Amino acid sequence: MAIKNSFSLLLSSLMVFALIAIPTISGNPSGTTWCVANPKAQDPVVQAALGWACQQSETYCSRIQRGQNCYSPNTLRDHASVVFNTYYQHNKIQAGSCDFNSAAVITHTDPSHDTCQFESVPDSQ
């Protein structure tokens, strides 16, 4: 019985360690989240959501214009991810700010690439 209890305690300790250590090992110790285009969403849904977000503020779409740092790659999903994330970072305290009619999803992996750095605001702990 003592061995069984010791094993249970060890297993519980390992699980707690994993919950604490894995986010740090994965390179996201702050728990920061980003909002990107949902790879499962249909293109017309993503396009409509992108148009809506750009109508909310020109600022959200300024970085995907020709000559700007997030223009390339010039694809619907890459541009949508930049815009969705910018909107999300400015509005993340509002529930559903990364939904866009299911055109977007939350990620814990920084989607920044080349010269395009995705804005990030650490989540409230």
TrEMBL record:
Signal peptide: 1-27
InterPro entries the record matches: X8 (IPR012946), X8_dom_prot (IPR044788)
Superkingdom, taxonomy of origin: Eukaryota
All residue ranges annotated as the X8 domain in the record: 33-118
Keywords from the named record: Cell membrane, Disulfide bond, Glycoprotein, GPI-anchor, Lipoprotein, Membrane, Signal
Bilayer-crossing regions: none
UniProt cross-references to Pfam families, sorted A to Z: X8 (PF07983)
Record flagged with keyword Signal: yes
Gene Ontology CC entries for this record: plasma membrane; plasmodesma; side of membrane
Localization: Cell membrane
Main location: membrane
Membrane topology: Lipid-anchor; GPI-anchor
Protein known as: X8 domain-containing protein
Organism encoding this protein: Brassica campestris (Field mustard)
Organism placement in taxonomy: Eukaryota, Viridiplantae, Streptophyta, Embryophyta, Tracheophyta
